[in-house]
Each structure stands twice: as C-alpha cells, then as structure tokens.
Amino acid sequence: MFVSATPILHADLDAFYASVEQRDDPRLRGRPVVVGGGVVLAASYEAKAFGIRTAMGGARALRLCPHAIVVPPRMSAYSAASKAVFEIFRDTTPLVEGLSIDEAFLDVGGLHKIVGPPELIAGRLRARVLAEVGLPITVGVARTKFLAKVASAVAKPDGLLVVPADRELEFLHPLPVERLWGVGKVTAAKLHTLGIRTVGEVARLDETDLVSILGKAAGRHLHALAHNRDPRPVQVGRRRRSIGSQRALGRSPHDLDAILASLIDSTSRRLRTAHRACRTVVLRLRFADFTRATRSHTLAHPTADTETLLVTARRLLTAAMPEIDGRGITLLGVSLANLHGEDQIQLMLPFDDLEPGALDAALDRLKDRFGAASVTRAAMLGRDPGISVPLLPD
C-alpha cells in the first residue's frame, strides 16, 4: 500500500463565518447563529444541533430553530481572519496548500527534529489560532491528504485527531461510505442498495466490481481511497482553477440579467487583479426545490474582457430560462474557469480606437480608489445590490 512518508495536517476552522461573528459579538456566544438571511451561508454548531445546514433556505432554518439569531455576512471580517490564520500556518511550515478561505493542508515532515512530533505541532497550531485570532480550529493528522481530511471531519468541532501509521485502515474501514471523497447522495444510494455501507465493505470489493457498479473513474478512485492510497503531495502555491461569485435570491421576482451583469463585473475584475484570463464561463443555478444545475461554454481564446464574458453568460442564462420559469430559482452564480496567464490573451483584429481592455482597466482603477460600489451598471441603480459571495477555490 502506498502512503506518503510525510505526516500531513489538515487544518479546518470550525463553522468559520459563524465563529467570527461569535468572536466579535460576545452576546452571540453559545447561542444558535445563522449567517445570511435568504439562504444560510453558515451556521454555528448551536444552530446545527437543530438541523440547520449551509445552503438551506432562511425560512426553513427559522422553522427548525425559531430563536436562532440571523446576522448579515461580513466578508471583509472573514477575509481578515483567514489571512491571520494562514500567517500562522505559514509560520508553522512553509509547505502549506490552501484549499479554501478556512482550510489547508500542511506538510510537517521536516519539522520532527526541530519542533517535535506532528501531534505536538498540531496542538501548538491550534493553541496559536485560538490565542492570536480567537477562533476554534480542528486538525487531523495522517500520512495521506485524504486520511488527514477524514480525521479532521471526525474530530470536529474544535478537536485534534492523529491517525497512527500502523492503525490507518483500522480507523478508516468502520466509517460510513459517505466519508470517501466523491461519495454523494447518488453514489451512496447505489452502494446502500447493494448492502455496502462502510469503507471496509468497499475495500473488500475487487476494483473490477466497483468499476461495474460506479463506472471506470469513480470505481478506481473509491477503490484506491478505501485502501488509503493517495499519493498526492502538499502543493505549495497551487493556483486556483476558477474564480467565481454567487448571489442568493429570495422568493420575490428578480432582474436576473442585472444580477448576472453584476456578478460578471465583480468576477472579471478579480480575474484581471489576479493577472489571469479564462476560457470557460460556468453558470450555476439552484432551484426552488433545492436541486442544482450548471451550464458552461468554452471560448476559442482566453479572455479577461468583461463584455465578452457577459455576452457568453447571458447566452447561458437565456438557454436556462425555460427551466428557471418552470421551477423557480434561489441562487445564481458565475464561475470563470479554465484559467490561463494574462500573457496568453490573444489580441483580435481589427482593433478599435480603444485599446483592448482599456475600459476595464479604467473601471478597475476607479473601483480600487473609490470602492467597488463607486461605479455600477444603470440596471442596478436604485436596486438592492444584495450580497455576492465569492466562490471558494477548487
């Protein structure tokens, strides 16, 4: 069995947005807190005890817990807290792979002689995050990224779990199949119908059997994970594969075109700030029945041009309108994927009098100086801009 010889930490902040709110307002501590009104963006563990979950409708959340305290999201506060935590990560080891705003892998294999064993390093990291940033964090320790992440999930909230190298499968195999990456409701249901409910039962199947049940890619993937085969190293400086933003919508009518334009404006600006260009535009939809759908289109050449991206996104939205009209919509999101360096943007002939990208650059400078709300589209004048939530990196 292949496993990395290097101990890996998976550090994951607990109920991140809600924990920041409880940290900053003592009146919220120990009470059920919901971040976001129309749709739950985060819930404290006190709220989760009532069955409230992320992405649940706000009205349903309040039915489950009428005394929950609903607070609006403060993205700047979450960003500042994340930066402070990641500074502690990088002070612990230079080998840090960020997964999202609130979690990362840390390779601590070279620190044993200097600092001590990984459980000591993990304990000190947790203590520093609590003392310096004021937030609880859970850490899982194992010899593979997969198992470290599973360990942190089992240890939540505010815990530390070390999986010894000689007891990895003893820990992994009794867990439910849902602990395997890639096993969602559909895959779990397929396995359950065959009487397969634990990781150990998956491991006892031949790879060919899993492939016949789940398909070639999924079958091989789950067979490897069930035996804790995960050769991926911690990747330092891994660049994100997409940049996106989404808007939760209430039940009242919305101008979807205006919201889409606003989302493209913000994501294309972030794209240019990161000196990237994209080839694929992805439209993300969540319907009133909580099902989801995506639509995408890949362009011939990478671009960071707002108008080009907006035209593409509008075509995707137009194609999806019959389904939206029939089912209702509660979330609209955009992702710019298939990213390239900005030096790969191909200039197209014939040139207009205005240099390509000049308008976008001028608008970006205005927003950098006077704020993101200083320039907006006419369609958004007099409207509630709502809250756009940046999508987490892949």
From TrEMBL:
> Where does the UmuC domain lie?
8-184
Tell me, in one coarse class, where this protein mainly resides: cytoplasm
The EC designation for this entry is 2.7.7.7
Catalytic activity reads: DNA(n) + a 2'-deoxyribonucleoside 5'-triphosphate = DNA(n+1) + diphosphate
Q: Where does the record place it?
A: Cytoplasm
Q: Which Pfam families match?
A: IMS, IMS_C, IMS_HHH
- How does the cofactor attach, per the note? Binds 2 magnesium ions per subunit.
Q: Tell me the keywords, alphabetical order.
A: Cytoplasm, DNA damage, DNA repair, DNA replication, DNA-binding, DNA-directed DNA polymerase, Magnesium, Metal-binding, Mutator protein, Nucleotidyltransferase, Transferase
**Residues at the catalytic site:** E103
- Coiled-coil stretches noted in the UniProt entry, renumbered to this chain: none
Q: Which residues does Mg(2+) bind? A: D12, D102
Q: Which parts of the sequence are marked as the site Substrate discrimination?
A: Y17
CDD domains recorded: PolY_Pol_IV_kappa (cd03586)
Its assembly, as annotated, is: Monomer.
| Family according to the record | Belongs to the DNA polymerase type-Y family.
Q: What does this protein do?
A: Poorly processive, error-prone DNA polymerase involved in untargeted mutagenesis. Copies undamaged DNA at stalled replication forks, which arise in vivo from mismatched or misaligned primer ends. These misaligned primers can be extended by PolIV. Exhibits no 3'-5' exonuclease (proofreading) activity. May be involved in translesional synthesis, in conjunction with the beta clamp from PolIII.
Family matches, as NCBIfam families: PRK02406.1, PRK03858.1
Protein's recorded name: DNA polymerase IV
Q: Which organism is it from?
A: Lentzea flava
Question: Which lineage do the record's taxonomy fields give for this organism?
Answer: Bacteria, Bacillati, Actinomycetota, Actinomycetes, Pseudonocardiales
Q: Which gene encodes it?
A: dinB
